[in-house]
Amino acid sequence: MKPSKIRLFVKPWCGWCQEAEEWLDNRNVQYELLDVTSDRDARQEMLQLSGQTLAPVIEVDGEILADFDTGQLAKFWQKFE
Fold it and tell me: Which residues contact 66 (CB under 8 A, 6 or more apart)?
């Protein structure tokens, strides 16, 4: 089942965030990128969704994966393939 709405909450200087972006880009996944360091609303929403301020956080059709590396992302992503 291909996801319809993907949002990635990041901190631009975060290595895990950059790896998550590369992982999605390498698979031609379309997603909305939200910088929680410059967008106060995005930071508040990330906190509400994940219960934490750590990034990255990805929301895929309402399902949340927080503070992850690409290995965890790959496992999470399997349910959407």
Answer: 49, 50, 51, 52, 54, 56, 57
Beta strands in the chain (DSSP E): 6-10, 32-35, 57-60, 63-66
- CA 2/CA 4 separation, integer angstroms: 7
**Fold type of domain 6-80:** Glutaredoxin (3.40.30)
Residues 1-42 have pLDDT tens digits of 788 899 999 999 999 999 999 999 999 999 999 999 999 999
Quote the pTM value. 0.94
